[in-house]
User: Fold this.
Amino acid sequence: SQPNYELSEKIIQKMEAGEDNRTSLKIRHIPHSVTIDQLEEMIKNVVGPRKIDFLHLPRFKNGDNVGYGFVNFIHMKDLVSFVKKTENIKYPGTKTEVQLGIATVQTKEKFVRRYCINKLSRVKSTVPQEWQPRLFHSTGPQQGLPEDLP
Assistant:
């Protein structure tokens, strides 16, 4: 059967009960004008700083985002908090409500393999830094602080 990537109350209940440990979300229907800085700031404003270790907002060649992004939370409890607190929240400077789903890729390591390492030479040489995926330390005293791409 096909996996379910919709974010339902049932999934949140399973997460709270420790039966589902996914930590990555697909943030959907992002207005094209929203930047990765605005998205990162919105996440920090909702759950606090130093809660994520991966953030990516893919872009078209003209600089507009493609309408979705990915975030990995260091701890599943912060994902749950983000989901609950973003109900009826709008994207920065817009009238569009935040829409979330479970990402098909889970964990920082898998996102790095998919969006950084496999495309590393192309990403670092042709994609402006502000459009590249953002990594943050997952553990230790620097947890949640920026980390260089591999």
The mean pLDDT is 87. Residues 21 and 114 are 20 Å apart (CA to CA). The radius of gyration is 15 Å.
